[in-house]
Design goal:
The protein has 145 residues and is of the alpha+beta class. It has helices at residues 4-9, 11-22, 26-37, 88-111, 125-137, 140-144; strands spanning 43-48, 51-60, 65-70, 115-120. The structure holds zinc ion. Zinc ion (ZN) binds at residues 72, 77, 79-80, 120, 122.
């Protein structure tokens, strides 16, 4: 059993983690800038319909597309996701909850007819912008169909 007291003893780690959780990732900022440059307009950090306590990094209400840029640590990226060795049980449970919450959010939005795009913070923001633009604008084939 791990108590919260044990967890906060590692002050440096917990400060680093909380800073990471709040700060916009470099990928997210670069993605926003690139999409804006391409003339796409979106809301940042908007509450999700039907889930007022959860937020999407980017929301394209017209196209019904939500975009999340997931932090490698907090969302357990297969390449960079690591569980800290100290208090590992506590961390594993916390991180597994995050992953479960992501899946629940995806299912909820898809149910409402939205398209959910998720990128890892380690991904190339230009490539991510390509994907977002295609989904939001639709392909030329879609337009002529
Ligand atoms: Zn990663």
């Amino acid at each position: 059993m791990v108590s919260d007291d044990d967890v906060v003893t590692d002050v440096a780690t917990s400060q680093r983690m909380s800073r990471q959780a709040r700060r916009d990732t470099a990928c997210e900022i670069a993605l926003r800038r690139e999409l804006h440059r391409r003339g796409l307009r979106f809301r940042v950090d908007a509450a999700l319909p039907g889930m007022p306590r959860r937020r999407a990094d980017l929301t394209f209400a017209g196209a019904k597309v939500v975009v999340f840029v997931d932090g490698c640590f907090w969302h357990c990226c297969p390449i960079h996701g690591t569980a800290p060795a100290a208090n590992s049980a506590w961390w594993r449970e916390k991180l597994e909850r995050n992953v479960a919450r992501d899946a629940e959010t995806n299912a909820h939005m898809i149910e409402l007819g939205w398209t959910v795009l998720r990128f890892w913070e380690h991904e190339d923001p230009i490539e991510a912008a390509d994907v977002v633009e295609i989904i939001v604008r639709g392909t030329p084939d879609d337009a002529s169909a």
